[in-house]
């Protein structure tokens, strides 16, 4: 999927990436930008967002899956003294996402998640796909 102006127009994450909306950028490189979730589930709840506007996880083709998102998520967690042993990473499965721009949730420690957050980011649910589950599904498509 290629980046297109109509899909970027009005996208909150694209506005953050383009510097048109205030947000503390925790990390950025040529492919990704990382910032805190607006409604964090724990002290460490980051979003790894690609600079290219992909609508959601289902809009990715197999050859577009960039596992560097995982490395970036682990790196930002380590740099901010987050607990990697209690790490939860995953995507909200459409239509259960609030922003139509692909983003990886990186959350720790999962033990500190409240009842509502545990439901929102429930592993192997219809609405939240844990990174391990997603990777298995992608490998099955290859």
UniProtKB/TrEMBL annotation:
It catalyses: adenosine 5'-phosphoramidate + H2O = NH4(+) + AMP. It comes from Armadillidium nasatum. This is Adenosine 5'-monophosphoramidase HINT3. A motif (Histidine triad motif) lies at residues 101-105. Keywords: Hydrolase, Nucleotide-binding. Residues 12-118 form the HIT domain. It comes from the Eukaryota. The gene is hint3. One of its GO terms (molecular function) is nucleotide binding. Belongs to the HINT family. SUPFAM superfamilies: HIT-like. Pfam families: DcpS_C. The active site is at 103 (tele-amp-histidine intermediate).
